[in-house]
Amino acid sequence: MTPITIALDWTPNINHIGFFVAQEKNFYTDAGLDVTLADPSEDNYSETPAKKVELGQADFALCPTESIISYRTKTTPFALIAVAAVLQNDLSAIACRRAAGITRPADLDGKRYASYQARYEDGIVRRMITNDGGSGNISIDYPAKLGIWNTLLSGAFDASWVFINWEGVQANDATDDLTYFKMADYDIPYSYSPIIAANEALLTEKKEAYTAFLAATKRGYLYASKHQAAAAALLARFVPEHDQNIDLERALAITAPSFGDAEGWGRMDESAIARFLGFLADNGLEEQQLPVGAVVTNGLL
After folding, report:
1. Residue 237 sits in which domain range?
2. What is the pLDDT of residues 1-54, one digit of tens each?
3. Which end of the chain is more exposed for a tag (fewer CB within 10 A), N or C?
4. 129 within some domain
5. For residue 238, is it within any domain?
6. Do residues 267 and 260 lie in contact, with contact meaning Cβ atoms separated by under 8 Å?
7. Whether 139 contacts 110, CB under 8 Å
């Protein structure tokens, strides 16, 4: 059995369902792999998933495309590259408290935003505000990552970046006080998130194992899409206690159409990534536009 570790980007949630299905249905075992799904709560997010790959603690990181770009613009010999997309569509949004008088992005001027301190995050949020006619004058702070959602629900902050197929489902079950603004609705060509990323230097050396991992993972996601009740029940065993109130079947019903089909799962549209890279350069978030080939490869799919 070949050991493989993937560092998850968050505690177990609906975006991860294919990994857990593949683990519990023995798809990884069938492929000759001994897979570890590393939960960031185990070390309280002391290292990002991408950093764990850089340090050799994980073979794969689950992260946004921004993490790839960030590493590619650093003066370091380590090169992170995207090898598969979990979602074919962007299911994230900026969640805002209606009680704070926020009905459109421009209303975020003067409000409080809880940031994950991800590369480009603050700049993207400010650009959303200015694209809607605001000044982009928003107060940004950086609470502990794993507690950001609670700071929004409690009213300590007015807005944050969430997944509408996870926090959005949880919020709709608990309150109707949130509204959501999607990037595409405000001329921001946001890229894939989350993606599966690896150390580019190891793609040839470990090609067989890495290709087998992606094939088994794809099998897990396609199973989850086809057998939603069974997959949701399986994931429920791993969801942390504070998220046990989320309707997993409803979350999966929202998410499954974005997994893609047998031909499309994991594949990344290079033109979409090019648009995002151009957006970053055009808005001064990067000095120059990276070539798409430095960010993504579909070669293992």
Report:
1. 2-88+192-294
2. 999 999 999 999 999 999 999 999 999 999 999 999 999 988 888 899 999 999
3. N
4. yes
5. yes
6. yes
7. yes
